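Record 1 of the preview.
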Amino acid sequence: MAATFRAILVSRDEDKKQSVAIVQLGEDDLMEGDVTVKVEATTVNYKDGLAITGKSPVVRHWPMVPGIDLVGTVTKSESAEFAAGDRVLLNGWGVGEAHWGAYAGMARLKSEWLIPLPAGFSPLEAMAIGTAGYTAMLAVMALERHGLTPAAGPVVVTGANGGVGSVAIALLSELGFHVIASTGRVNEAGYLKELGAAEIIDRAELAGPGRPLGKERWAGGIDAVGSHTLANVLAQTRYGGAVAACGLAQGFDLPATVMPFILRGVSLLGIDSVMAPLPLRKEAWRRLDAELDRDKLARITTTIGFDDIIATAEAIVAGRVRGRVAVDMTTA
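->
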């Protein structure tokens, strides 16, 4: 009998009512690709939570095995880039949305989606970073390309207790920036300061409708929240500053005006982690390997098993998850 493995499968019926179940699958069930991988570790991102709960229509193929990130060992390869035994890393590329993803014991993927696992990371460490941390590094790199330096002034990080926010604070503080952390959980100020935040502000200061222009408070920022929060961050950014936008936890709308852009020369930098080209991905992971404090990474990480993924996905959408979640997939 062919070997089987467990997987989380999201389905919907003729009335488009969504359901989620743990099922048994075999390699013959997997989607097309030139590399087959035994999944060793994954993570639970906000987007994974949306896929499992159906709170937002991120799934584009039914049924779907969610999970947008994975580390695993190649078992079969038709690609010259990878051979059996290689450890590989995947972030994005529509995996977990349009192509079966990480929440299964095995995955079949396209080789152009994969990069070698950086030697400095274990599988669980890489997934403690995951798309959230990799996105945070892409945002930091975008701010650097804009010319932002610690000398320009403080930077704000919204959604500070989340995955992107936690890693962004650790990275920016390590680079010497004065970091202002915006959070709805100000009782966790101690946690944020341990990561490197110099100041903590309540997200309520940014979450409601604001003025087209406000007092200039920061030279730049990383926003994972969107909506009024991003609009207010832009309105309070100093002349010539820049804000990297990479999330929509509050909403995908942007109720802003052109005033920050045409009166203060503020730049809005869009960050896409899903389709980012391989050279940019490799540079981001090289920087993470070199610059991310491993003690801080451990501090923000909770490790769970396969059986805890669904409950954790529900918790992350409800805003009850702090930092990052790594998933040990050896039990799948």
